[in-house]
Amino acid sequence: MVFPNLMNSRVLILCVLVLATRNYQACAFRNYKTWTPSNPNNPKHDETSFRGLCADSITTQGYKCQEFEVITKDGYILSIQRIPEGRSELSSNVTKKETVVIQHGIMMDGSSWFMNSPSQNLPMILADDGFDVWITNTRGSKYSRNHTSLDPSNEKYWDWSWDELVSDEMPAIIDFVFNQTGQKINYLGHSLGTLVALVSLSEGNWINQVKSVALLSPIAYLKNMKTKLGVMSANYVYGKKFTPRDITEFDPKGQRVLDFVDGICNHYGLNCNNLFSALTGENCCLDEAAFVRFMKVEPQPTSNKNVIHIAHIFLSDSLAKFDYGRPHLNRFHYGQPKPPIYDLSNIPNDIPIFMSYGGHDALSDPVDVNKLLSIHFQNHDKGKLSVQFIEEYAHADYMMAVNANELVYKNVSSFFKQKF
Ligand SMILES: *[C@@H]1O[C@H](CO)[C@@H](O)[C@H](O)[C@H]1NC(C)=O
Ligand SMILES: *[C@@H]1O[C@H](CO)[C@@H](O)[C@H](O)[C@H]1NC(C)=O
Ligand SMILES: *[C@@H]1O[C@H](CO)[C@@H](O)[C@H](O)[C@H]1NC(C)=O
Ligand SMILES: *[C@@H]1O[C@H](CO)[C@@H](O)[C@H](O)[C@H]1NC(C)=O
């Protein structure tokens, strides 16, 4: 759950060293330090300057890129980017193309996909492979902090959890992309982006708009997550009554969160020197230079309520709307004393789904993924469910492993091209 004090430079250095050593053994860094992003318009790469993801990470690599604003029902102004074609295409005929929407995980943003070279990162690989690619940025993250009436410094801005990502944010994105392209969408989610997809499908959203769904590091059950820090943080939430004071920003680089993590580490005697691995599992195949770039821009802020709601998944071993902790408050929000349950058995059996999960993933544990599969996908139409298991992969490998193209993205691309 808590990515934080990675940002402390002492910790970062240790972390990179530990990762590098492990990676070297496990994966031999195939493309070790061979690529540095060119950034001609912004040589100093001033992190406070705001230019949009297209200018920061995409056009610099020779791709066309368009920025759009999508306004959600609850007023958030999201920035989303489109890579309409690959680098080698001469004329665009985008209306004919298959559309892909790429949704990152918690405390990430769209830029988390661009740490590696164009031949190694998912959006550019899909664009070069003929897809019309759309990249999302969740509310509260760097490129999506505006709102029609609220400022992020106002606590009310942070009154949401993944419930609202399902009910307000994702429908706005899917409607917008569907209207722009006139094509049914292939959705790809990583981590929390998979939970949003599974719950959206179970709520009957996306019918007639989404053609197929790819889930990398799927999350629906968390009971077996191995990350000690996550488990401790969740246990810390346990038994605490939710109060309006908990409606606030969760900024993993902010002092409040750093103090919280230090407190947890000290209190439980955890060795928090290698937090990144402690949190995501031992990633086999990251490039050290890409990881350093990653640490410059991630992790991104989310809402405290979102983090608490994820802790609830772990603590209750079930998927329900946000639990306000008191019957009268739940009654106020839902008309019943307990929050309504999301029933993943309602996911249509004929929706094409590709899932890939890793043996070393500390968040999306194989036991939990197998539980998801055995409880909710037993009766899924044969031929509409494709499951891949990669023993050596952990959580972040799906986002930026140097061999993710060979192992995962090629399969995703051919899955999205299927006619079903
Ligand atoms: C673009 O696609 C449409 C619909 O398939 C087709 O009729 C048209 O000829 C294409 N245009 C170009 C320039 O390829
Ligand atoms: C944020 O949104 C408001 C309302 O639409 C708009 O007036 C303002 O210019 C936006 N601010 C930025 C920094 O884009
Ligand atoms: C998409 O089109 C539908 C039907 O024309 C319209 O109701 C809806 O508001 C549009 N959504 C967006 C986000 O433009
Ligand atoms: C992934 O691709 C490889 C190589 O093409 C293939 O052998 C394998 O069956 C694919 N796996 C899935 C789950 O699609």
Automatic annotation (TrEMBL):
All residue ranges annotated as the Partial AB-hydrolase lipase domain in the record: 55-116
Gene3D superfamilies assigned to the protein according to its UniProt record, in alphabetical order: alpha/beta hydrolase
This protein's record includes keyword DNA damage: no
GO molecular function: hydrolase activity, acting on ester bonds
Keywords for the protein's UniProt record, in alphabetical order: Hydrolase, Lipid degradation, Lipid metabolism, Signal
Signal peptide: 1-28
Gene Ontology BP terms: lipid catabolic process
Active site, per annotation: S191, D361, H395
Entry-linked Pfam families: Abhydro_lipase
Similarity annotation: Belongs to the AB hydrolase superfamily. Lipase family.
Protein name in the entry: Lipase
Organism: Vicia faba
